[in-house]
Specification:
This protein is mostly helical. It has 2 domains: about 10-40 and about 150-205, Endonuclease Iii, domain 2; about 45-145, Hypothetical protein, domain 2 (Endonuclease III, domain 1, Orthogonal Bundle), CATH 1.10.340. Helix content is about 60%, strand content about 0%. It is built from 13 helices and no strands. The N and C termini lie far apart (about 40 Å).
């Protein structure tokens, strides 16, 4: 059976209502955040390559590199697979990211097949590619595939949002947050959207620029 897919803002709203009914703290957070964003993106090679490009650089730097890559056709798998080190350096990729990008392009992933795979198999398939860890795979499942019940507990903003919202003494570890998120099934991807939105609101209230 295909897992629940988030297609529209109405799907997100349904999940948010469910979470608010389960836990008053989610309901309180929703009052502050307002309606949650859909945050869907196209799936495929480009989505994963963009995640690799964005690792450990600012949004502005990632956007600039991506623009150079797009101009050179490097956002297409066949072009990336055949690109030289010089081509990739000229676009702004580090040696490591060039290796990761080429590995992804040569991986032979069947992106159409991922759409109907169980989420755990999607993640297992993606993390076999160098440069793709669990966080990147979970984010892909969440936003590119629209899976409603996937979470990314290694995300530092989600950890900090959970600390603030649930009044924890310390930021929960990946393991602890993954266990907490079990209570938010079958809408863990909406819980993530809510926690990210709450994180932004909470930090603004504290006067911290993000």
């Amino acid at each position: 059976m295909i897992e629940r897919i988030i297609h529209s803002p109405a799907c997100v709203a349904e999940g948010a209502d469910w979470l608010a009914a389960q836990d008053a703290r989610f309901a309180q957070a929703l009052v502050l955040t307002g309606p949650l964003p859909l945050r869907r993106s196209e799936d495929g090679f480009g989505a994963l390559l963009s995640s690799i490009v964005s690792q450990q650089v600012s949004v502005a730097s990632a956007n600039a590199i991506w623009a150079r890559m797009a101009a050179a056709g490097l956002t297409q798998a066949e072009v990336m697979a055949a690109a030289s080190d010089e081509d990739l350096r000229a676009a702004g990729l580090s040696r490591q990211k060039a290796r990761y990008g080429r590995a992804l392009a040569q991986s032979g992933i069947d992106y159409a097949a991922l759409r109907v795979m169980p989420t755990d198999k999607v993640i297992a398939t993606l993390v076999e590619v160098p440069g793709i860890g669990p966080w990147t795979a979970e984010i892909y499942a969440m936003f590119a595939l629209g899976r409603a019940d996937v979470f990314a507990p290694a995300d530092l903003a989600l950890q900090e949002a959970a600390r603030l919202l649930f009044g924890l003494e310390a930021r929960p570890s990946e393991k602890v947050l993954r266990a907490m998120a079990q209570d938010w099934a079958p809408w863990r991807a909406v819980a993530a959207r809510l926690l990210w939105a709450y994180y932004r609101v909470a930090k603004e209230r504290e006067g911290i620029r993000q």
